[in-house]
Amino acid sequence: MLPTDLNRRDFAKSLAIGAVLAPVNQVGAQEPAKKDAPSVADLQLEQIKQQYPDERLDDAALKSIRGDLQQQINRSKILSAFPLTNADEPGFAFAAYRRD
User: Fold this and answer.
1) Where in the chain are the domains?
2) Is 44 exposed, middle or buried (0-12, 13-18, 19+ CB in 10 A)?
3) Which among 3, 2, 1, 13 is positioned nearest to 52, based on CA atoms?
4) With contact defined as beta carbons under 8 Å apart, do 45 and 66 qualify?
5) Is there a contact between 52 and 3 (Cβ–Cβ < 8 Å)?
6) Secondary structure of the chain in HEC code, one letter for each residue
7) Which of 15, 16, 81, 89 is 20 to 30 A from residue 74's alpha carbon, by CA?
8) Which is nearest to 11 in space by CA: 57, 67, 71?
9) pTM, entire model
10) Are 78 and 95 in contact (CB under 8 A)?
11) How deeply is 48 buried, as exposed, middle or buried, from its count of CB atoms within 10 A (0-12, 13-18, 19+)?
12) Of 3, 19, 90, whose CA–CA distance to 53 is shortest?
């Protein structure tokens, strides 16, 4: 598939796959991020720009995409911080179907 043949649905699917598979969390890192180091959202945005070079990705579109990436990172941090135990599972109500 050429970059010009990419529609919005395929782009969003590729973006979601990349966000899931991207190593964004360093386990055991105790040091805060350095000020000169780029953020995770900036690194992901750079990867998107390299993977999908297109003249339609102007500054406004890149700013919007970076905002979406940052929102996903923030949601991920909130969900990861929520403590779960084995007892925290969905409560299924099973009722066998009986034909009368």
Assistant:
1) 38-83
2) buried
3) 3
4) yes
5) yes
6) CCHHHCCHHHHHHHHHHHHHHCCCCCCCCCCCCCCCCCCHHHHHHHHHHHHCCCCCCCHHHHHHHHHHHHHHHHHHHHHHHCCCCCCCCCCCCCCCCCCC
7) 89
8) 57
9) 0.50
10) no
11) buried
12) 3
- Which amino acid, 43? L
Q: CA–CA separation, 95 vs 48, rounded Å?
A: 48
pLDDT digits (tens), the chain, 100 positions: 455 676 777 777 777 776 666 555 444 445 565 678 889 999 999 999 999 888 888 899 999 999 999 999 999 999 889 887 877 777 777 888 888 7
Half-sphere exposure of 59 (CA within 13 A, CB side): 0
